[in-house]
Amino acid sequence: MPGSQDRDTIQSVTLNRAVFYGAALIIVLFSSCVLAFPEQASLILGKAQTWASATFGWYYMLVVAFYLGFVLFVALSRYGDIKLGPDHATPDFSYGSWAAMLFSAGIGSELLFFGASEPLDHLLLPPEGVAGSAQAARDGMVLTMMHWGLHGWGIYTLVAMALAYFAYRHNLPLALRSAFYPLIGDRINGPVGHAVDIFGIVGTMFGLATSLGIGVMQINSGISFLTGIAQSHTMQVILIVVVMGAATLSAVSGVDKGIRRMSELNMLLALLMFFFVLFTGPTAHLLNTLVQNFGDYFTSLPRKTFDLYAYGNSGKERWLGSWTVFYWAWWIAWSPFVGMFIARISRGRTLREFVIGVLLIPMGFTLAWLSVFGNSALSFFQHGMKQLGNIALSEPAMAVYHMLSSYPLATPLIVLAVAICFIFFVTSADSGALVVANLSCTGDSSSDAPNWLRIFWAAAVCMLTLSLLFAGDYTSLQTAVVLSALPFSLVLVLFVVAMYRALHHEKQRDRSRSLAIASPLLNGRYRPGHTSSWRRRLNRAISYPGRDMVYRFMDETARPALSKVVEVLEEKGLQVESDLSPQDFSMSIRVEHGDEAPFVYGVQMQGYSTPSFMRRGGNLPTASRYYRAEVHLWEGSQEYDLVGYTEEQIINDILDHYERHLQFLHLIR
């Protein structure tokens, strides 16, 4: 794997022409054809939906279970201790802040669309059982929670884990193609890498279009409910143009001023609505069903994971394609977008902490929301509000507004729901366009793409959303996402293979440290920190040198030692890269081994606060900070200090680590 990069070599963000033009061409051509021939497109998409469900239903069910199984395996295995970053890395955010951002990732306007309508749909048109029965209501909540539960968040976890691991642990770009490095090496920068990013962009665009299309229908339904203005494509066009304008302003204002503030506001509004519905409705019943729904969901999870309703009639395939297969494809299409966001906030976490947090924190609120809203709708239906069921089947976007109309302060509550949908619509368009724009670029992954590129993709996703709505509303959205996610699902299978190979190599590297037999280690004179004089050893142990002293040590002792090793390695015909100038308080050598992992050895100056007990009187140091010359390998700091080593001891320390690296290369063959 690549070692650490010199900051001076990081390139600025530049447009990846192959990825940008390839993805843009697919999106623009598809949108133009659908807008030009909406009726024909609707017919073709309808047939494609039936074909995809019948042909690939089993595949989507199996592959999503595979993703979830892998991320759980990583969390529960010995690999769970590996960090998303160097071994010495600490999380960029506190646990509370990280949890809050994960929490916000689980909220979207789709929860309003499906929160009330989906349980009612499963009650009245269940895949099996008696329609309208108490058991159908109970099973309907299990199906709803399954569609929004562990399987979907397992997909997000896989993508985010791969992006964060290869970016922060291996210093590769924060891009989809980087996950292929263990499989194809530097060829990730060629056609294969371009194809991976194009698949990711196209899938993300269709996933965004599906979410935004649902958001448009939800806002349009809310306006119609409040004002009596009929729903129409004209109104949807107006809404999309308004949202496009708002998303553009957000893009220009920047992430901190735009997306972050709007997301925080929307999270608070969503929580306000959630608790209002919980405490002004049948609270005791909602809490009882909440507990039972969670229990039913987890106990039925293994069976439902592989339930294809294969022993029912042929109509079950259509139900599966409209619901479970659609959901799995939708999660896959959204995964580059949400995965990129989660990866950016998770540096420094262990894989175990990461997987458990990403799986459980956002899912907990999502399932609680669906339980409260779903059981509220079921309760109204079962206690006489029968028209709510018909509305859920014919106009699912209207169901939540009719349900909310039965609560106190109904009008302000519905206005709040429309506002939540609108803000989610804007933030999804802008942040989604940001992620797609970043995938269209190369260079410094810590910087965002230019505004013009974000605006282009925001406009493209709005155009795509509009074309799908014109071609048949919700059904077209479903079909497009199922088909577009198919190639990217294969990419995610390769993500699993690459992640496993990289993690296996990590553990083999650890194993090589204990198996390598290096002659200096057998001789006590060369053990780290050992000197011929115990007095010198004691003085070294209680010394807290200043920066100038450590800098002189690096320049006068460490640098000649590294230079001699580089000289001999080059004489042996090895390809060696070195940076031996201590001007930036670090030096390093890197030995390439073709397509195998390189050997990296560095010395970096690190400053620390002097312990207070060492600053109390006597002849002990009084400076508030002291410095160390720490050894850094490919995986990060080794947390021991070279100051006090002789030149020969440093050379032997380098050779110790190099022999362990060669043992590691032997083990992974």
Automatic annotation (TrEMBL):
It is found in: Cell membrane. One of its GO terms (molecular function) is transmembrane transporter activity. The keyword Hydrolase does not apply. Keywords: Cell membrane, Membrane, Transmembrane, Transmembrane helix, Transport. InterPro entries: BCCT_CS, BCCT_transptr. It comes from the Bacteria. This is Choline transporter.
